[in-house]
Write a structure and sequence with these properties.
Layout (H helix, E strand, L loop, with lengths): L3 E5 L2 E4 H22 L5 H26 L2 H4 L4 H6 L4 H20 L3 H25 L18 H7 L10 H20 L8 H20 L6 E3 L2 E2 H23 L11
Antiparallel strand pairs: 1-2, 3-4
Length: 265
């Protein structure tokens, strides 16, 4: 695709970094709007978002380092980080743990914060997946389908090991569309009363876990197998869906019965 968006002499602006930056801006805007409706100040929102993003970036790179053979990551330079990122699940898990800890210790309000994160995360990540397409990372399996994509830029192969001039499933586009649909559902369901606090986060975990399980079947990126034919991402996806069911159940159980009645119309 187009790994380099703009270039002036030795300075390169990478498409991956620009699109993910736009995704962060979009998710922050949604997160701020949701939390301000619940009485959080803009400074509180910025603080929560900042620590979650910082932890997420560390977690994404950390899990990538953990599951990747040493010769692959020991020579990683800053430029390669801007061309492509780490593993999303690492960022999700560490970002979640950090956000929950801060939200509980400082505000004693965990589930409302998670419900605000859900549509923000789905929306921002959907946009970020287009950055993966531009960079050539997270590529798909070979396909004969007419909408298959073939990467030709040598930087994609150098940075990510992407096969060149081979028609591949555009799994980045598939995931962007599916996450966009998930975000739409989260916005739609978020307007309905009587669902319980934490319900949206549970729906996000189930929805994204299912999306990722499906996408893993179409990805061509080599993955370390940890149990049978299951990869790290497969196991985490199952764990997310299970945790999502627990969030849904607890949200409904803990919500007052009178508030569960959704007005008709």
């Amino acid at each position: 695709m187009w790994p380099i968006l703009l270039q002036w002499g030795p300075v390169s602006i990478y498409s991956y970094g620009v699109l993910y930056l736009l995704g962060f801006i979009l998710s922050y805007w949604i997160f701020r709007d949701r939390l301000r409706r619940q009485g959080f100040s803009t400074s509180d929102v910025s603080f929560l978002y900042g620590v979650a993003v910082a932890a997420g970036l560390i977690g994404a790179r950390g899990l990538h380092v953990f599951v990747t053979p040493r010769p692959t990551w020991v020579e990683v330079r800053l430029g390669q980080v801007l061309q492509s990122g780490g593993m999303y699940y690492g960022g999700l898990l560490l970002g979640f743990a950090t956000l929950v800890t801060i939200a509980y210790l400082r505000y004693r309000r965990v589930r409302p914060v998670l419900d605000a994160v859900a549509p923000a995360l789905a929306s921002g990540h959907a946009l970020g997946r287009l950055g993966c397409l531009a960079a050539g990372c997270c590529w798909g399996r070979p396909t004969d389908l007419p909408w298959g994509v073939a990467f030709t830029h040598p930087l994609a192969q150098a940075a990510n090991g992407t096969p060149l001039r081979v028609r591949l499933h555009p799994v980045q586009v598939y995931e962007a569309l599916l996450e966009g649909g998930l975000a739409f559902l989260l916005f739609r369901w978020g307007r309905k009363p009587g669902l319980g606090v934490g319900w949206l986060w549970g729906l996000y975990l189930i929805g994204y876990g299912a999306i990722r399980m499906g996408m893993e079947r179409l990805r061509g990126v080599p993955k370390p197998v940890v149990w049978g034919s299951w990869s790290v991402n497969d196991l985490i996806s199952v764990g997310l869906m299970g945790a999502g069911l627990l969030f849904l159940g607890y949200a409904r159980w803990s919500w007052p019965k009178a508030a569960r009645k959704v007005p008709k119309g």
